[in-house]
Amino acid sequence: MAAVPISFLLKPIQVNVGNILPSRGAPTNLLTSRKYKQIRASIQQIDLIEPLSVSPVDKKTGQHGLLDGHIRWTVLKELGYTEAPCLIATDDESFTYNNRVNRLSSIQEHVMLRRAVDRGVSAERLANALAINVAQIETRLKLLDGICAEAAELLKDRTASVEVFNSLRKMKPTRQIECAELMISANNVSSVYARAMLSATPPD
Question: Which of 26, 94, 102, 137 would be 30's cystine partner, CB 3.0–4.6 Å?
Answer without folding.
Answer: 26
